[in-house]
What we know:
Blueprint: H1 3-13, E1 23-28, E2 32-37, H2 45-49, E3 56-58, E4 63-67, H3 72-89, H4 98-106, H5 111-130, H6 134-146, H7 150-169, H8 176-188, H9 190-201, H10 206-217, E5 225-226, E6 229-230, H11 237-258, H12 261-306, H13 308-324, H14 330-341, H15 346-350, H16 352-367, H17 372-386, H18 391-401, H19 403-424, E7 429-431, E8 445-447, H20 451-476, H21 480-486
Antiparallel strand pairs: 1-2, 2-4, 3-4, 5-6, 7-8
Helix pairs in contact: 1-3, 5-18, 6-9, 7-8, 9-10, 9-11, 10-11, 10-12, 11-12, 12-14, 12-19, 13-19, 16-17, 16-18, 16-19, 16-20, 17-18, 18-19, 19-20
Amino acid sequence: xxxxxxxxxxxxxxxxxxxxxxxxxxxxxxxxxxxxxxxxxxxxxxxxxxxxxxxxxxxxxxxxxxxxxxxxxxxxxxxxxxxxxxxxxxxxxxxxxxxxxxxxxxxxxxxxxxxxxxxxxxxxxxxxxxxxxxxxxxxxxxxxxxxxxxxxxxxxxxxxxxxxxxxxxxxxxxxxxxxxxxxxxxxxxxxxxxxxxxxxxxxxxxxxxxxxxxxxxxxxxxxxxxxxxxxxxxxxxxxxxxxxxxxxxxxxxxxxxxxxxxxxxxxxxxxxxxxxxxxxxxxxxxxxxxxxxxxxxxxxxxxxxxxxxxxxxxxxxxxxxxxxxxxxxxxxxxxxxxxxxxxxxxxxxxxxxxxxxxxxxxxxxxxxxxxxxxxxxxxxxxxxxxxxxxxxxxxxxxxxxxxxxxxxxxxxxxxxxxxxxxxxxxxxxxxxxxxxxxxxxxxxxxxxxxxxxxxxxxxxxxxxxxxxxxxxxxxxxxxxxxxxxxxxxxxxxxxxxxxxxxxxxxxxx
Length: 509
């Protein structure tokens, strides 16, 4: 996609989310453009989905999340921000989204695809209502703390992997220490970024959250004794930093309400750093350190002893967890594992759910040769699915159909069992970053048995997920009634007739 196309995509999106004056904030993660809106009712989701380059729209209470895919989102976002800035300073205009309407009108009148899109929208709405519980909203906010860190995790993970590869091959030895420093620097200070983002997300002063969290990684904590033992720099990791920053937000709010205005500039930041800092040193670091160690030990033992069974359960249940919004609770766990051992062993197994989804979509494509609109949807969404962006296939194909969603989970379970089995046999590996999945995860793989074995097992798991998802969907994903209703081309439009022009029976092909 060229820069002009990136700007064209941004220009097509802007009027469909209410224009520049409706934009409160703009951010992006690995695959989604996240837009904070003043008035959610101004969003035209149907037209957004028809914009070329848009892979899907995800329902969310706080933001409008537009799926653009990896790479594209990082290029469309700056263009979108520039258009928002220009629109706020320029005279108000209301351009008609001609490109979108042309694309929508050019779409074949596939009634079945429209019905599936309506079902997908209803399912998204139902999921949105189910996920609006205090606990799930809290998990979403915790996820918002870590999502902005994903680009740095990916970049540093790839650099660290490149340094390890050069070290193993004995190439350019003088460059290896530099790559190690670049790749590890961010991880050594990730607690500070977590504290900053936590305070920002929960309504505190970001720099004060970062200042409190910095206590966790400060080398001087080795001189502090708590519960009869000296602390270690980094003890408690991201969980300790998260808890420290949350406490700092509470203290800051208390100070803002009670400290006299004349003393606020001196007392509030001092107490916000001092009180949570002492609590962090003499409590949170010890507790969070034990919890972090327990998470790492449990994950290692789960796969070392449970192997295939653990992989089957994790791979099979991940798509339902996504539907329930509970997958967001895994983000701090992934980050904790990466900080402890350099990679998360869970992500490659959970990525198998996407493989099952791809296999299921391919089976739907083969089983419905006479449904051009649905097959076109699958063709457009499949490349993103191979790279781990599953929303277009989930909401446009498998979930509205029902059974294919279940068989996609079967494929994910089979792929997860494959990876888990090899982990139990000693080929332990994981991902050095979170965010990517599918084929995009290959550059981030790291293990104890060498890169060749690691890549082979992960590729084998993807293949098992594809094949099992395909076979399960092809043979068990449809009832006879479903095939009758879905496997039919849209009826052609009948031209109007006049009394002098009798209707003729269409010729049989």
